[in-house]
Write a structure and sequence with these properties.
Blueprint (H helix, E strand, L loop, with lengths): L3 H27 L5 H8 L3 H22 L3 H4 L1 H21 L3 H29 L3 H27 L6 H16 L13 H4 L11 H23 L1 H9 L5 H20 L5 H24 L3 H26 L8 H30 L1 H24 L11
Helix pairs in contact: 1-6, 1-7, 1-8, 3-6, 3-15, 5-6, 5-8, 6-7, 6-15, 7-12, 7-14, 10-13, 10-14, 10-15, 10-16, 11-12, 12-14, 13-14, 13-16, 15-16
Length: 399
């Protein structure tokens, strides 16, 4: 009989690699955020084009989740991870060479597809290797990655040379190293037939998980919609409200939201999923109100205080959603369930932000922010009411 401690020790290098790889994909996804105003100055495009560049990334990511999201259940985890890493490395080369809006959009499309492929397979592999730590890593790594990408790129843009290339060169080197290491991972699933059929766009949600998915959807939508707003329009909002022109603002806004979210996940890691959902649904509206007050009073400190509170709600809500869903899937259903979860998450991440970008021309950025925040507050309150009425769900494999 295998000693559990020996098994944990043997899995630790794989867990570290998978966590760092997931983190690096999300770091690359937010790396362009602090650079958007530099791209605008150099390539002379509008705020509408900016939200388009942001939106094509998320839509391409969704396309990957809908088509190749469960492919690793059939081909095995390692080939799919390798392909995703290779595609993201190619996307970094496109960013390095980007000298037009077309190149920039192409880089974001390729990056989005690679990230969608990676998100599903890495999440499933983490759950395969460790059912205890896997959900925690799946919750923390994306948020830390988004913070690291936004803040790290902002620092490089402010203090290092070649701000539109250096970050991508560093990420390219990281992805090349990951592509070489991935073949040292143990394969955690047995390949099975049905790979071509799995490419048909569909959502694979196990029957036993559907009711829970609908219950966590309002809060999950609100948290990811807030994340999408911060990744696209928040830097412009802060500049409009406060007049700041620092390259660090874009990265700092994303980092403030996501780092506090990651810390909240770590604090709540042993708490029941329902408690995390209720806490997230309570903190998110408070944070949104503070954010709106900070915008209208041109107070950067109040804006960041609201961001920290909303970040706590973001982290608690995300953890509660993941921990509510993960136990409800059998091993061969995990990649499909995580793909469906992230499809809904990234729809919330990109579509509301695209709509906001469109309405800024008619209503103005500040009025659009007010409407956006009000809708998210309503969703969070609805989620709180739903969580208070939740019933326990039978876990897969439980007696």
């Amino acid at each position: 009989m295998i000693n559990p401690q020996s098994r944990l020790a043997s899995n630790r290098p794989s867990l570290w690699f998978l966590a760092i790889t997931l983190l690096s994909f999300l770091a690359a996804s937010t790396a362009p955020t602090p650079l958007y105003h530099l791209y605008q100055d150099q390539l002379h495009f509008s705020a509408a084009v900016l939200t388009l560049i942001f939106g094509v990334y998320a839509l391409s990511l969704l396309a990957a989740l809908l088509t190749v999201g469960s492919l690793s259940d059939h081909l095995g985890r390692k080939p799919v991870i390798f392909t995703a890493v290779l595609l993201n490395a190619l996307a970094m080369l496109l960013f390095i060479s980007a000298d037009s809006v077309t190149w920039l959009i192409s880089a974001r499309v390729l990056q989005g597809f690679a990230t969608g492929m990676a998100t599903a397979v890495l999440s499933a592999t983490l759950l395969d290797i460790d059912r205890q730590q896997g959900p925690l890593i799946n919750s923390v790594a994306p948020l830390l990655g988004m913070a690291l990408g936004g803040m790290g790129c902002g620092l490089l843009a402010e203090f290092a040379p070649a701000p539109l290339q250096l970050t991508y060169w560093l990420l390219l080197a990281l992805f090349v190293g990951q592509a070489l290491y991935v073949w040292r991972l143990p394969e955690s699933v047995t390949p099975q037939a049905g790979a071509w059929a799995s490419l048909r766009p569909t959502l694979h949600v196990p029957v036993q998980a559907r009711a829970t998915l609908w219950r966590v959807l309002p809060l999950n939508t609100a948290t990811w919609a807030l994340g999408g707003f911060y990744a696209s329009l928040a830097p412009s909002l802060v500049r409009t409200a406060t007049g700041s022109t620092s390259n660090l603002i874009g990265g700092a806004t994303v980092a403030a939201l996501t780092v506090t979210g990651a810390l909240m996940i770590f604090i709540l890691r042993n708490r029941p999923a329902t408690r995390a959902l209720q806490l997230g649904a309570s903190l998110l509206p408070i944070g949104l109100v503070l954010i709106l007050l900070g915008v209208h009073s041109a107070s950067l400190s109040l804006f960041f205080l609201g961001t920290l509170v909303a970040g706590c709600g973001f982290g608690a809500g995300f953890l509660g959603a993941v921990r509510s869903l993960v136990p409800l899937a059998l091993p061969h259903e995990r990649a499909g369930l995580m793909s469906a979860f992230y499809v809904l998450s990234y729809l919330a991440f990109c579509l509301p932000a695209l709509l906001a970008g469109h309405f800024t021309h008619r209503l103005g950025l500040l009025a659009t922010t007010d409407v956006y925040g009000a809708v998210l507050i309503v969703l969070a309150v609805a989620a709180l009411l739903l969580s208070l009425r939740a019933r326990p769900v039978k876990v897969c494999g439980a007696p």
